[in-house]
Amino acid sequence: MKNSLRLLALLMVAGTLPAHAALKVLATTPDWGALTQELGGEHVNVYVATTALQDVHRVEAKPSLVARARSADLVVATGAELEVGWLPVLIQESGNSRIQPGAAGYFEAASALKLLEVPSKLDRAMGDIHPLGNPHVQLDPHNIAIVAHALTAKLSVLEPAQAAYYAARGKDFDARWSEAIQRWETKAAPLKGVSVVIMHRDQAYLCHWLGLNEVASIEPKPGVPPTASYLGQLVNKLAGTPPKLILLNAYNDAKPANWLSERVHAPAVVLPFSVGGSPEAKDLFGLFDDTLNKLLAAK
Amino acid sequence: MLSFRPMAALLALALMPVVAGAADDVGALRAELQALKTEYGARVDALEARIQQLEAAPAVPAPEPVPETPAPKSSGGASAFNPAISLILGGSYTSTSRDPGDWNIAGFPPSGGEVGPGERSFNLGESELTFAANIDPYFSGVLTAAITGENEIEVEEAFVRTTALPDGFTGKMGRFFSGFGYLNEVHAHAWDFVDQPLVYQAMFGGQSRQDGVQVKWLAPTDLFIELGAEAGNGDSYPATRGAGNGLNAAALFAHVGGDVGDNTSWRAGLSWIDSQAEDRAGGIADASGNPLFESFTGDAHTWVVDGVIKWAPSPRRQLKVQGEYLHREESGEIADATGLLLADDYLNRQSGWYLQSVYQFTPRWRVGARYDSLDSGTPHYTLAPDGLLSASPDRVSLMLDWNPSEFSRLRAQYDWDDARDDGDTDRILRLQYLYGIGAHGAHKY
Predict the structure, then answer these.
(1) Quick check: is B241 in a domain?
(2) Beta carbons of B42 and A171 less than 8 Å apart
(3) Does the pLDDT of residue B2 top 60, yes or no?
(4) Residues B51, B154 within the same domain
(5) pLDDT of B20
(6) How many CB pairs below 8 A link A and B?
(7) Do the domain assignments include residue B81?
(8) Distance (Å) from the C-alpha of residue A233 to the closest C-alpha of chain B?
(9) CATH topology of domain A15-111+127-183
């Protein structure tokens, strides 16, 4: 009796202290999911809340996500209010004190970055503006490098015993990423100054990084779909200085871009935007390889 | 450069409160030190990589910085910790083919809530004002006040919620919408139709509020499993607030949910509500309109089965189907208008359900249909008149709404309303507007 009790106690202790438990990570977008996987390797178990074919502004706090938030050791979010419509509810409903904002298990990529387009005036008459700046940061690879450092530090804080492992992986990723950035920037040289029409402000960081010349936006205001009359005006405006390319993302409605493409005789290029947004964008490296290939092919 | 790491380690050691002693502490310190080393190591490596990168002189000059406006500074001082404030403005125009004054749900005692189509012509809806913020590291608080068109202020919800309980527990106390079923917790501005389904109007007077406490537990599983229990003072129909120290309302609920593929999500639930009434005014009339009784004292047990499924084939389209079935059994004493006991073995089983579907076919437009059906049952008690008939009120509703942005909605709804179950359908047209200003609200599933 005594022995079996002791055994039971031992089993219970063993049950609560698994020899090698991976950190459970809930990433809000496929890009942060991919980055966490790169940095955490076998020590993380990543669940991604959205796909590249979803609009991250409009995601629902669905039961499956609440369940994942409940067990998560770490939430990796973009921040800057990108996920304001659903992440606060997930965290609130999760009953998980470890991932509350401010707790060790909450990570925001944007807080490590300098954001573009911080509005000087806040008024919803201007459309869906983000008060803290443009949160669609992932299409500038330099941002990924900065977030990678911050995330490596976060993983080490959460699992100090594995700090050396995370440091090694972080260093390895950084080396491969720096090499890739050089390769991409060399390759993308012909894109500098190319005039483009963008769909939404979520392409701003890509334009900024590549030095693309953004001449117009298909959305009249952020988050506001174009009307027929607005598109008509756009055609007139672009008649004198036709753009080279029209950029849209895998998740966007292609109709307005295709309509404009026919009239201004510029190809509409569908970019993956996030990991998983095209068959080639399998990971972060693939995301940038494919984005550049598509841009260069269409130019 | 290379001496940086040991320096950092020394600095870290010096800064740490060396409490000495216990081996545990030493272990923790070592771990922290290791974390610091790693962090600094990573930073140093990053800097080195940057330098190498710069030295290698990129083929493409770095893009010129985009001119930026300075970030708005968060205002300091006394207002720095102000809560998030949001305001919903709403109103409607109502046209009915029958006098809304005699609207009732046949065979059900009046629930006393905000039920029925409301008054004709233009009506100012409730202006819903919400304040919400974290209170400290352990609690957050929410107040939702409804300012009515009749110039009254009503506390819709006012509760504090725990944020730091372990193991998936969350507690709530104050006034809140009870967590049973699917629609009960949803605020009016987030409904998919102008009004609640008939079964909610008949059985809870619209929405059931709890003045009390709630505990919820979320299972640590990939399948969403939520269990909840509530106790309250009963100040919400069909309970009444008692004279004693006891609790007059309790609820237990369970919800499960998950995904099917990338595009489909679902949630289903089962709930049980216990409501105790003492001299609750309002009774049931027979077919000719004569009241059988005027007040009730006893127990109401309600079961709720609920389900919702959402299918989103693209970011711009979504189909949502939801339904709930409610069954209530009331047993106890009935009395006439003077308080004279008519029977102490009263028993009535009543039920109802609705099924509704809303389809968002473009980002801005949604169309919906809803069917409501109720079964009033018949009261059973000694000396009950013979030949009492049950009523079966029902209603068909169609809805179309236009959403220029996340913050505005214009809606038209048309009902063929047979709540009175007297063969004369009330044709109801309602046009509604709903606008939200202030903090960006996040909606529940």
Answers:
(1) yes
(2) yes
(3) no
(4) no
(5) 38
(6) 199
(7) no
(8) 21
(9) Rossmann fold (3.40.50)
Question: What's the pLDDT band for B23 if we cut at 50, 70, 90?
Answer: very low
The pairs formed by B29-34 with CB atoms below 8 angstroms and a separation of 24 or more are: B31/A160, B31/A161, B31/A163, B32/A160, B33/B9, B34/A156, B34/A160, B34/A161, B34/A163, B34/A164
ipTM: 0.88
Look over chain B and give the mean of its residue pLDDT values, rounded to a whole number: 87
In chain B, the residue whose alpha carbon lies closest to the alpha carbon of A93 is: B170
pLDDT of residue A14: 45
SS (H, E, C) chain A: CHHHHHHHHHHHHHHHCCCCCCEEEEECCHHHHHHHHHHHHHHEEEEECCCCCCCCCCCCECHHHHHHHHHCCEEEECCCCCCCCCHHHHHHHHCCHHHCCCCCCEEEHHHHCCCCCCCCCCCHHHCCCCCCCCCCHHHCHHHHHHHHHHHHHHHHHHCHHHHHHHHHHHHHHHHHHHHHHHHHHHHCHHHCCCEEEECCHHHHHHHHHHCCEEEEECCCECCECCCHHHHHHHHHHHHCCCCCEEEEECCCCCHHHHHHHHHHCCCEEEECCCCCCCCCCCCHHHHHHHHHHHHHHHC
In this prediction, residues B16-32 reach a mean pLDDT of 49
More confident residue, A16 or B251: B251
Structure tokens at A200: 């939404």
Contacts of B35 in chain A (CB under 8 A): 153, 156-157, 160, 163
Region B277-296: mean pLDDT is: 91
CATH 3.40.50.1980 domain position(s) in chain A: 15-111+127-183, 188-298
Interchain proximity A89–B66, CB inside 8 Å: no
What's the average model confidence in pLDDT over B10-17? 41
Percent of chain B with pLDDT over 70: 83
User: Is B48 in CB contact (< 8 Å) with chain A?
Assistant: no
Residues B10 and B109 in one domain: no
| Model pLDDT, residue A19 | 44
| B427 Cβ under 8 Å from any chain A Cβ | no
Predicted confidence at residue B17, as pLDDT, reads 37
Is residue B257 located within the same domain as residue B379?
yes
Closest-CA distance of chain B to residue A4, Å: 28
Residue B288: the pLDDT is 82
Q: Is residue B85 part of a domain?
A: no
Domain count, chain B: 2
Q: Is the pLDDT of residue B8 over 50?
A: no
Residues B99 and B20 in one domain: no
Instruction: Please judge whether B444 and A163 are an interchain contact, meaning their C-beta atoms are less than 8 angstroms apart.
Output: no
Question: Does A271 or B2 have the greater pLDDT score?
Answer: A271
- Residue to mutate among B185, B218, B407, with most A CBs inside 10 A, is B218
CATH topology for the A188-298 domain: Rossmann fold (3.40.50)
Determine the average pLDDT of the residues in B180-193: 96
Task: Tell me if A85 and B71 make a contact (CB, 8 A cut-off).
Answer: no
Q: Domain range for residue B270?
A: 92-438
At B25-65, the pLDDT tens digits run 555 556 665 665 666 666 656 555 555 554 444 333 334 44
- In a domain, residue B74? The reply is no
Shortest alpha-carbon distance between residue B196 and chain A (Å): 22
Other CB atoms within a 10 A radius of the CB of residue A158 amount to 22
Residues of chain B contacting A253 with CB distance shorter than 8 Å: 316, 363
Chain B partners of A100 at a C-beta cutoff of 8 Å? 163-164
User: Do B265 and B153 belong together in one domain?
Assistant: yes
Say yes or no: B45 and B106 in one domain: no
Tell me the whole-structure pTM to 2 decimals.
0.85
Residue B216's CATH number: 2.40.160.10
The ranges of chain A with pLDDT < 70 are: 1-20
Answer whether B67 touches A (CB < 8 Å): no
Chain A residues whose beta carbon lies within 8 Å of the beta carbon of residue B314: 53
